[in-house]
Amino acid sequence: MDIQGIKTLNDWIRDSDNVVFFGGAGVSTESGIPDFRSVDGLYHQKWSYPPEEILSHSFFERDPAEYYRFHREKLVLDGVQPNRAHRKLAELEEAGKLRAVITQNIDGLHQAAGSKKVLELHGSILRAYCSRCRKPWPEEAINHGTGIPRCDCGGVIRPDIVLYEEPLDQDIMEEAVRYIRNAEILIIGGTSLNVYPAAGLIRYYRGNKLVLVNLSETPYDSYANLVIHEKIGEVFSQITV
Ligand code: OAD
Fold first, then answer.
1. Which of 48, 69, 72, 104 could staple 24 via S-S, CB 3.0–4.6 A?
2. Based on the domain organization, do 172 and 155 belong to the same domain?
3. Is there a single domain that holds both residue 230 and residue 153?
4. What residue owns the CA closest to ligand 1's atom 35?
């Protein structure tokens, strides 16, 4: 354990009421959800097509049945619960220290842990809507059952997530930029910082307390003021402020 790193993080958080968290799939691995790029991640698993291709707009349009086979088997996991990282972030918000969680995850676990201000850059599999008429549908319409879910209008119901080739929601991006630009402490955790435009958000931070908590190295390690290469749940469970 990086005792010195965790002590520094604790000291910084104790003195601040303006912490912002920006995270990715590594935040949910301790809940049993595989990430994308680790050796046992989704992108190294065998499937009829590369998962990056299945998770694209053109693939969804071309073959929604195969998309949904993948979606229900790999993205929807029954019984997953928030872990220590999600819960600590909710506690820090409740304590008036943390202003926002910005996440690339689509699993809804931050809200399940009690976080209120959650900016979902890539959407959520817990929401759905018709790709033709835009009518909203409950998550049960897409996440369970078999085959292609269809709206009353005949259109294919799709998850409210950002697929590859699709733009991010501009309002959410702009709000994320505002939080990051004004943050005193920016903690980035559980993300390989490989996927843009989300990874580019880091460049908006102007302070001098940029913290990276990630198991493996990232392209931004040298930018950070504090780097902790440990499991995020273990690190966050030792935040005692
Ligand atoms: P990645 O799978 O690219 O990166 C996850 C990172 O978390 C890796 O660097 C791991 O080392 C690290 N990690 C795993 N478990 C951890 C733990 N317990 N504690 C700390 N670190 C841990 O996932 P993202 O960066 O989130 O996009 O990927 C970004 C986007 O790529 C996703 O939102 C998704 C994917 O394609 C879309 O689907 C649009």
1. 104
2. no
3. no
4. 36
Helix boundaries (H) for 77-137 = 84-94, 109-113
Protein residues whose CB sits closer than 6 Å to any atom of ligand 1: 24-26, 29-30, 35-38, 41, 55, 104, 122, 162, 190-192, 194-195, 214-216, 231-233
110 is catalytic: no
Q: For residue 153, give its domain range.
A: 36-76+127-161
**Domain at 49, CATH number:** 3.30.1600.10
Encode pLDDT of 214-227 as tens digits.
999 999 999 999 99
Indicate if 216 and 193 belong to the same structural domain: yes
pLDDT above 80 for 54: yes
219 and 147 in one domain?
A: no
Task: Dig out the tokens for 219 from the structure.
Answer: 């392209």
pLDDT for the residue numbered 228? 98
Helix or strand holding residue 10 (H, E): helix 3-14
Q: Do residues 184 and 225 make contact, with C-beta atoms less than 8 angstroms apart? A: no
Reported confidence tier of residue 46, pLDDT bands at 50, 70, 90: confident
Does the pTM surpass 0.85? The reply is: yes
Distance CA 94, CA 116 (A): 9
Same structural domain for residues 114 and 172? Answer: yes
> Which SS3 state, helix, strand or coil, does residue 223 take?
helix
What pLDDT digit, counting tens, does each position of 66-78 carry?
999 999 999 999 8
* Dist. CA 153–CA 177, nearest whole Å: 37
